[in-house]
Design brief:
The structure is a homodimer. Chain A contains 11 helices and 16 strands. With about 375 residues, chain A is an alpha/beta fold. The interface between A and B is large, with 58 and 58 residues.
Chain lengths: ~375, ~375
């Protein structure tokens, strides 16, 4: 399945901050076919550093999508049954409008003149995209991590336009620890002189700072146990300790490699904006409590967490489930056993496939 | 109790790497009085960023020591009974010889010409200090985190010279996750152009890189729960979200403050060398197994871990205890309940005081 990224363009979008972006573009891909009733559409929501290329082989790069193990014929999100949509988030750097986009007022990249965005803003742009495809009501929205936040936001903001939501390995409000890890990443980027207050688009990007930020991220995505299994204390290309500051351990070389690779595909300013959007995310804000926020929600839920995920620990999913249950909302919850930590929703998908497939089948059956 | 730091100087020390440092100095403090039999001496071993000032009020700064809640008259380490010693580690920057010390061969600071050091090297210098004080056998060695590694190393290297060891919140071998967090700190420092390959002593230190490294450290020292209790999602001097990149949350301001404060008291190159010493620490190395390493150990042990410590999780202490138990070694183990994470051994000391006090009393009673 060779897929191509498409682009939708809208005149403007009003943001939660009060600012307005005009114009605004959104990059997206689709897989499978929309049925005549337009009732089989599922929107996939990507995590922090994801993009619109969720499945299939990209025409441009030849690479598989980030959730190709979950989306395709016969897979959890079965493209023989469902019409799948995935778009790059607002503020991103993979085709949708973000800080690297040209500001029409100046003819230069927005950089830090880009308005601060929220998860709500991302979802509002997704709604514009879904509307433009002629889809009134999504069968489901689904995503892990920051994608899960968007799934929750969809259910709260557009209760009449989404039948089911699948928030995975996520939270209803970013915790101080989650904010703290994001803040370290931001500080690492902004401490790099090449960041130049965000104005690096005509010069060198803040590669070292962004690499350090990504290294922190990777540690939090794995578990203590999965790191032990993957790396142990194995030495890198050395028979004994080097007694110097070259790479000694495989885990060091892995992190340096992942950090340096990230620089080639991600914009540092997008890192700042998207991480802030995560940190601002708090579904209890405004209403005062999660129960009040969920008062108007009509969506059915499948909430999934992973046992070894310490970045978005199961208790955060359970907080959501408890509130929904108390409202007698239709909610299924699975804490799946996995050693893979937060990354589990991307890599340890056997059981996740079973529960998602079953949930979608019953949702399609019971759909009003 | 006003205390002053003293300095001991030795001609040279041979290091595990094969290198030799000459001369070598060690900064230390003592509290309480050594008895006539010289049988009541306890060596306190500090953690990563600690120093010789463990207790009392420093003559130089007016500040209390880092374990003043544990050391003093009537406290866990009762200075009415015991003669306490604490020294700054080799490679440190608080009086003992380290990368900022003058290399006698060049007349300039060692910087990265400083030899790589190990936990074993730190302990060997401590042994020289203890010998110079005329103490043949320590009643106990005690410390948390990297201090606990030194306590274990003492018991293994000098079985005839230490009656009891109290390793707290520590491990017998640094895990890939622990190495990974240290590596992020090192990369943050080395990514700062002001680091200048370590030659910054005549100019600006790599303050931004070191601050980022310290921020990562602080997150790992706390627990998810203690961060929620301490900060919640409280906003900093703002009534609502700023929708900009100034500080929004108290946790951000706390981390930035602690990061910037650290720069005033810690040398970035010491960060590199000491973190590498931690990463090299592996008591199974050489012998092949912890059981073989502990074969000659005669020390009695009190091993302490804390329930919410995810940086040095209780299972790492239990690994040590299990091996000692299997050898029928005298070992007591307490996993103390605490929400404070790794910091618990420094701040949540009520129960720790009780178990240490009882253990020391029985050690003094049963001392051969």
């Amino acid at each position: 399945m060779i897929v191509e990224t498409q682009l939708a363009r809208f005149d403007s979008i009003a943001l939660e901050s009060g600012a307005c972006l005009a114009p605004v573009e959104v990059a997206y891909q689709t897989y499978g076919s929309l049925n005549a009733a337009k009732s089989n559409a599922i929107l996939i929501l990507h995590a922090f550093s994801g993009d619109a290329h969720a499945a299939g082989i990209a025409h441009e790069t030849g690479k598989p999508g980030w959730w190709d193990n979950m989306i395709g014929p016969g897979k959890a999100f079965d493209t023989d049954k469902y019409f799948m949509i995935c778009s790059n988030v607002l503020g991103g750097c993979q085709g949708s409008t973000g800080p690297a986009s040209i500001n029409p007022e100046t003819g230069c990249p927005y950089a830090m003149a880009f308005p601060v965005i929220t998860i709500g803003d991302m979802v509002r742009l997704q709604k514009m995209l879904v509307d433009s495809l002629g889809i009134t009501r999504l069968l489901a929205v689904a995503g892990g991590s920051m994608g899960g936040m968007q799934a929750l936001e969809w259910a709260v903001t557009y209760p009449d336009h989404v039948v089911a939501a699948i928030p995975i390995a996520t939270t209803a409000r970013h915790s101080p620890q989650q904010i703290a890890f994001n803040e370290v990443g931001r500080q690492a980027i902004m401490a790099d002189p090449d960041w130049s207050e965000g104005n690096y688009y005509s010069g060198k990007p803040p590669a070292r700072g962004l690499a350090v930020a990504r290294m922190v991220g990777h540690i939090t995505y794995m578990s203590d146990e999965s790191m032990r299994e993957k790396f142990g204390r194995r030495l890198r290309e050395k028979e004994k300790f080097g007694f110097d500051f070259s790479v000694d351990f495989e885990v060091e070389s892995y992190l340096r490699y992942r950090g340096s690779q990230f620089v080639n595909r991600f914009d540092a300013n997008s890192y700042l904006y998207i991480s802030k959007a995560e940190d601002y995310f708090d579904l209890t804000q405004g209403s005062g409590s999660l129960a009040d926020t969920f008062a108007g929600v009509k969506t059915r839920f499948l909430v999934i967490s992973f046992s070894s995920d310490w970045l978005y620990p199961p208790y955060q999913s359970q907080d959501i489930v408890r509130v929904l249950r108390r409202r007698n909302q239709d909610v299924a919850y699975c804490e799946l056993p996995s050693n893979y930590g937060h990354d589990a929703f991307l890599v340890d998908v056997a059981e996740q496939t079973d529960v998602v497939r079953g949930f979608l089948a019953s949702t399609a059956r019971e759909r009003v």
